[in-house]
Write a sequence for this structure.
């Protein structure tokens, strides 16, 4: 929810899956590492997009803040 809702959702997913990184099964750990990297990229991308959208709205509607 909000401007950074997807960022927060991806961060929650990342936190929830951290335990998988220490799973005794190698396949699970390998999947977890790939998934973690994927989430980190999505978090960074969504963070940039949200900041850009926020700045554009601020410039278009300066009196709204």
């Amino acid at each position: 929810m909000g401007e950074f809702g997807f960022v927060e959702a991806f961060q929650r997913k990342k936190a929830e899956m951290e335990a998988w990184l220490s799973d005794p099964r190698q396949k699970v750990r390998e999947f977890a590492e790939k998934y973690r990297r994927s989430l980190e990229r999505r978090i960074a991308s969504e963070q940039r997009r949200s900041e850009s959208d926020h700045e554009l709205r601020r410039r278009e509607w300066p009196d709204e803040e």
